[in-house]
Amino acid sequence: MILSCAPLTIPIIGTECFRGCINFEKFVATRINIILDSCFSGCYNLESFEANGISRIGNGAFLNCYKLISINASNIYQLGNSVFSNCFALKSFNSIINTTLSYNTFSSCSSLVRFSAISVPEISNECFKNCKNLVSVLCQNITLLGNSAFYGCLRLADIDTFNVKILGNLPFERCLSLKNFNSSFITEIPQNLFKDCVGMIEVNSSCVTNIGSNAFKGCTSLKSINLPMLTSISDSSFSGCTSLITFTSTTLIEIGPNAFDNCHHMETFNVPSWTMNIIYDGTFRNCYNLIHIPDTSSVNTVGKESFMNCRSLESFNTNNLVTVQDRTFKGCTNLKISNTNIIKTIGYESFMLCSSITTFNFHSCTNLGESSFESCNISGTLTMNNTFSSIPHNSFRNNKISELYLRRCHIENGAFSDNNELKTLFLDTISLRDRAFFNSTNIKSIYLNGVNFFYENSLDLIHACVNYN
User: Fold this and answer.
1) Pfam families, per this entry (predicted)?
2) How many whole angstroms separate alpha carbon 255 and alpha carbon 246?
3) Which of 17, 61, 206, 348 could anchor a disulfide with 369, C-beta 3.0 to 4.6 Å?
């Protein structure tokens, strides 16, 4: 059924005027100025709407017009809430004047591919929610993006955010194809803003100072970051950005836990003005290709797993380092360090598998975790005086120590196991546990002073010549 009002000019079509007219297929009028609320709502079979001069469309005017393909909307300046919501067949929308977009205006328009307008000052909450085929939004002067404005726009690649000043909650959630973010007004990127935007390639902003938690987490295509005013990065901000190679900032003063976790291809982290004294947990965990980091001479505490599996990392300035927590450098196979004489606490597995570490100064160390130096290459003579109460399980397992000096400490099971180059022991200990030197088969001489427990079934020492003082 075709309803033709031509050549009539209709100033206003009233509220719910044609609501539920399920047989309408086409509407034609010479000119309409205003369409009020719910006017064509539920016209399930309406495919085409032709009228010039429309300036305003009210709330829900075409709600649930499932088959609506096109509408002449070139002069619209105001669209109400849910105007085209659930118009599954609508493919494009064009306006040649300023247009304000309200709540849910195009939500679930699953065939909408392109939206264009000369200027759109505001895109309100859930405006394009679940427009899964929307590729581009071509409009200038957007200043506000509401909550979940583009939620589920899986194919959205381009939108001009240069003039955006206000960001709602998660406007780009599940925008898997979004390629870039460019802003000249936004100073803070909120948490989760671009999380899992796997198509994101570059980020540019001259004024962003803070990045919230998870803001770019899972942006696996992100390669370029240009944020010259950045001062703070929160938890997991760039976690999982597997294509990121270089990060540079001259103003950064704070990095949160897990900030660059799993950035597998990052090679260089360049922050010339580094002044932080703490590197938090997991900051660079699994950055396999990370070679260079800034001068860390100001750092006194390194958090859990902060550099774990950074197998390309070559150096770390430990001049002021006091605390190394659990698994901090585990798996850093190329790491070489020096000036460790003020380190007091070394956590569980903290240097495990650091096969390039051949020496370590334990002068100030008082706390040592299990497996802390397991499978390193500490070689030659190792001297540990009165600083330890205990040498924990597997602490120095599988090293290349040839001569060992220990005083007044408890040696746990496996502490020096699999040290096949170990030949001479000088032990002034409280107690020596069975299998402390398990499979260290080349021990020839043992000099004991004050050993309280020496188990008869210590087969790893059975061939050694024992001397008691």
Assistant:
1) LRR_5
2) 16
3) 348
Return phi, psi of residue 421, to 5°: -95, 0
Q: What is the mean pLDDT of residues 27-34?
A: 83
- Tens digits of residue pLDDT in 379-418: 999 988 767 888 999 999 999 999 999 888 888 989 999 9
Place of tokens 């602490």: 395
User: Which three-class secondary structure state does DSSP give residue 9?
Assistant: strand
* pLDDT per position as a tens digit, 323-341: 999 999 999 999 999 889 8
> For 276-330, where are the E strands, in sequence order?
278-279, 301-302, 323-324
Q: How many angstroms separate the CA atoms of 12 and 32, rounded?
A: 7
- Dist CA 469 CA 464 (whole Å): 16
Q: Residue 452 gets which letter from DSSP?
A: S
The DSSP annotation for 122-168 comes to: EE-TTTTTT-TT--EEEEE---EE-TTTTTT-TT--EE--TT--EE-
Has residue 459 got a pLDDT over 80?
no
The pTM is what?
A: 0.86
Provide the token pair at 398.
């599988």
pLDDT of residue 139: 86
Closest CA to 313 of 288, 294, 330, 338: 288
